[in-house]
Design a protein that fits this description.
The chain has 269 residues and is mainly α. Helices cover 73% and strands 0% of the residues. The chain folds into two domains: 1-42, no CATH class; 79-268, no CATH class. It has helices at 24-43, 50-87, 100-128, 137-165, 172-198, 206-219, 221-226, 236-268.
Length: 269
């Protein structure tokens, strides 16, 4: 230890062995100088855990943003798909597998339109005769919706089989997209039929509008898709006849099962 009074080395103690000056201040200062870094180190607060939370929250926020962006992009694509087919139905010839999702959405929407209109009609009639509570959502809406969806899926499968027989270069994705595009004008026709029914214009020729909207996707759309490209395989006429025959059989089978719901309704009556 160095005495600050005489600058001579002395043994540790209260007084300097050379000059007798007190050493308490020096020892206290030295102790505080040696202990201060330890105190500062011990009192230092640990780093906050916020970065870890941010790391766990960032993927969730990223997923939400990604989902919202994909939904927005999907709705935008379907909007353009629908408007193009509505303004110019013949543009469905240019539709391909890139528009698969939009075409599938249109098939679902068209099936839902028919089922929902029938459900509302049943509900209204049932309310007039006092059995409105007996019209269940599942039996009178969900089941018809699934059956119409199955019908159009069968039609798409038959069209795909026909284009393969005709040796046309169309994939199943192309057929789904084209079928959905060709459904757009028939959906508009079906809406017009509903409006005519609301206005109580159900006689000829107004009743034909709704019927064409239903039968068109079964007998007209398959022919339109099959006629887009040259037939290299089986004869076009026979291929078309076979396609229409099988499509009509599928339509009659599905609508017959749907008509069983009408029998249930009239039994309630």
């Amino acid at each position: 230890m160095i005495c600050k009074n005489c600058n001579q080395e002395t043994e540790p103690g209260k007084f300097c062995t050379k000059c007798g000056a007190p050493l308490e201040e020096a020892s206290a200062q030295e102790q505080s100088a040696t202990e201060e870094p330890i105190v500062q180190q011990s009192t230092q607060t640990p780093p906050p855990a916020q970065p870890i939370q941010q790391q766990t929250q960032q993927p969730q926020q990223g997923q939400q943003v990604d989902f919202a962006q994909k939904t927005k992009e999907l709705s935008s694509n379907f909007g353009g798909f629908f408007l193009n087919a509505l303004k110019k139905p013949s543009s469905a010839r240019d539709v391909n597998g890139v528009h698969l999702i939009s075409g599938a959405i249109m098939i679902v929407v068209f099936s839902l339109m028919i089922s929902l209109n029938e459900f509302i009609s049943y509900k209204k009639e049932a309310k007039d005769i006092g059995v409105g509570d007996e019209i269940g959502f599942f039996d009178f809406l969900a089941i018809p919706f699934l059956k119409y969806l199955l019908l159009y899926a069968i039609i798409v499968g038959l069209i795909f089989a026909a284009v393969n027989v005709a040796q046309q270069s169309l994939s199943i994705q192309d057929v789904v997209a084209k079928y959905g595009a060709y459904l757009v004008p028939f959906a508009l026709l079906y809406i017009i039929g509903i409006l005519l029914e609301v206005l109580d214009m159900t006689g000829l020729p107004f009743s034909v509008v709704g019927y064409l909207a239903i039968i068109g996707p079964i007998l007209v759309v398959p022919v339109l898709i099959l006629s887009e490209k040259a037939v290299k395989g089986f004869d076009y006429v026979y291929t078309t006849i076979g396609l229409l025959l099988l499509s009509y059989i599928a339509y009659r089978y599905v609508t017959k099962s749907v008509n069983n719901i009408e029998e249930i309704f009239y039994n309630l009556w």
